[in-house]
Amino acid sequence: QVQLVESGGGLVQAGGSLRLSCAASGSIFRINVMAWYRQAPGKQRALVAAIASDGSTNYADSVKGRFTISRDNAKNTVYLQANSLKPEDTAVYYCNADIDALGPNINYWGQGTQVTVSS
Question: Rounded to whole angstroms, how far apart are CA atoms 117 and 92?
Fold first, then answer.
């Protein structure tokens, strides 16, 4: 069984920063892509940033230059450094990972962490 546990959300003023973390645990052979998604009230869940096992990244246009995704493969952990936060960044942020547990790859989700940016 694999679990993703997120931490680091909270309330921050516009222009501030937060660092989100997501640690994967359980029977893991290899983690392929790790990513952060977010879902604002009344909107669909959308990709924020993703990082492959080789370190290559991609970002939503709305966060380019402000957010940075990184990973520590030894700790099975992905991070999202969010700077220059805006009220429109307010959402529940979800960690996502594509995991090889010596069987078919399975896509896992974390429970979500709330990020609220006040104006």
Answer: 11
